[in-house]
Amino acid sequence: MVLVLQLLPLLLSKAHGDPGASLVGSPGDRVNLSCIGVSHPIRWTWAPSFPACKGLTKGRRPILWASSSGIPTVPPFQRFTGRLRSLDPGIRRLELLLSAGDSGTFFCKGRYENESRTVLHVLGDKAQCRDPGSKHGSKYPQVLIPLLGAGLVLGLGALGAVWWLRRRSPPHPLLPLPTFAPFVNAESQRHIEEEEEPKIPGNLDQEPVTTAVD
């Protein structure tokens, strides 16, 4: 009976989850994350509230593990490197130096699969990821549009210059068309020459004959 009463909080925590605490801070503040109602914490995980703003995917990602040596293990290349440290060897309490984009839920997982959670909201984090210095979204369209406009102006200017040069230059003279003599067959040519030659009757040197009339 005593054992059942001792395990009852763990079972309830596993079934319903610990509502945990809520923290609010600004970038540069230090906050403490506590593992409440969990015996033998073994790891901490973090689920970002606005993953798209940091190029992340939804879901939990480990940020710290307990170690038998007493020195917590921090996974490499995670966003809290250098800003998160454990305040005790049992990783029951953590200290985090806040930065923009840290908003999310921190889960403390126990050896018996029970967990507690702490919801953190960093002031300035929003679901709409926009540059604070820009009111119209990303800077890329603002840079790309002027470049496209400059390229269009240069292209039109080049076309206009080519057209103007072509209009000023004198037109090239037209070359005469080649002429070809008609093809005439040799036999046909001889026949034509024979037809054109005049026919004179008799001999031209013969004197005319006169007849005397008595």
Automatic annotation (TrEMBL):
List every stretch annotated Disordered: 188-214
**Swiss-Prot/TrEMBL GO biological process terms:** blood coagulation; integrin-mediated signaling pathway; megakaryocyte development; platelet formation
Cited Pfam families: G6B
An example of a Gene Ontology cellular component annotation for this protein is: plasma membrane
Q: Which residues cross the membrane?
A: 143-165
Per its UniProt record, what InterPro entries does this chain match? Answer: G6B, G6B_V-set
User: Where in the numbering of this chain does the G6b-B extracellular V-set Ig-like domain appear?
Assistant: 18-130
Alphabetic keyword roster: Membrane, Signal, Transmembrane, Transmembrane helix
Q: Which residues form the signal peptide?
A: 1-17
Protein known as: Protein G6b isoform X7
Q: Which organism is it from?
A: Castor canadensis
